[in-house]
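# nightly structure sweep
# worker-07 picked up a monomer target from the shared queue
# config: single-sequence mode, recycle default, output format = structure tokens
# input follows
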Amino acid sequence: MKIDGQALTIEDIWQIATQKQCVQLSEDAGFVRRIDRGAEFIDQLLREEGVVYGVTTGYGDSCTVAVPLDQVHELPKHLYTFHGCGLGDYFSAPQTRAILAVRLQSLAQGFSGVRYRLLQQIAQLLQHDVLPLIPQEGSVGASGDLTPLSYLAAVLAGEREVVYQGEKCSAELALQQVGITPLTLKPKEGLALMNGTAVMTAVACLAWQRTHYLAQLCTRITSLVSVAVLGNAYHFDEKLFSVKPHQGQIKVAARIRGDLHTTIETPRNDTRLQDRYSIRCAPHVIGVVEDALPWWRQFIENELNSANDNPIIDAEGGHVLHGGHFYGGHIAFAMDSMKTAVANMADLLDRQMAQLTDPKFNHGLPANLSGATGDQKVLNHGFKALHIAVSAWTAEALKLTMPASVFSRSTECHNQDKVSMGTISARDCIRVLELTEQVTAAMLMASVQAVNLRGEHVALSKPLQKTCQQVAAFFPFLEQDRALEAALRQGVELIRGQHWSLYD
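# output follows
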């Protein structure tokens, strides 16, 4: 994956994060020159005793404090040092790779006043998979992701800790082992690394990709559930959906229609005029996600391909532009809305699980989808506990849909008096996705169990047959009660790895 200042996509970041693509920083002379001009312009301003925020002044509310020119070179180290106060879990390896790639892409726009060598060093971290240990908590998302990105800045200087070859070790040792010389950051470089939206944007890229896949998987599960409860396939009729033309909703209905291989000209022996809403309205629930994916992409990719630190350095025009591009409002709004839409899919599947397991509503399937026969029926409880677990995961996901972006807090001596909370929104969205993926794994198992219990009474299309075979590979038919944790964990990992191709 070449980084040369040209636009990247969400998929590009996903590929880097999951190590399906390697990063290659452009060595084009024009690109190198464009980057280096920014650092040279900063040096020129220093020679001329110019005033530049964060270069010749303190940070934030301390911008009125002048830093003598003979001390300017010490300021970047102080910046990443005093921001080393993150707490909470560390970002995962894929998330950390995404963070490095997103920050590299922003610096590659050429408006940050840094050296090409700094970009090289970030690229080398990715190439050698030397990953800074970055705590998740501590950013309000609007002077950028200062605290988490301080861990990247410190590692580039050979400080703090990394994960290398699966083990935690000092940055100094890891850099030595891969032949990277620690950097002494130049005057604008600490601020350029830290004063941006790389963390929230990286997490948003991964959240988008997971949401895109989950929407398809929830659609496939709905098809299986419709078959299992002998549902009315005409709820997904093409003419029906043409009169309410939300394109995502139409797409979901078409996918289910293809799964059920049923059209108005080929009648099916439906046993119910109108199914309950969790089946009949599934395109309307999942369709919200499908319709939102394009504008979520627009928000995320605009941020990904932007220069978003402060100040912006226009070396070509000879300008230092002080502004607020570190504000993560677009990412915050995208993530707050995404987590709500995803949690709604969890709730949809939870209600489908309730239909499958309850003999009052599942049209003749055994209670709790138990596969036991004969005198073993009274002993076995099938999916009873898993249904409870699904309800718990769904409730937790729904609880987390409170928007983080409305909880702006004035901080840092009221300099940062309106902040985005974009990083918290993104982290919340990931947690909602994790819970929904757990619900989805459980529902894959339950829906395939239900279809198998119908046996020869239902005919499956080839796509549904394939899904049943894929699920059977990690979850054999549940005849006698057994602990399901191992199968659930395997199913969740397969979902997160987007192991199966679905509709696209």
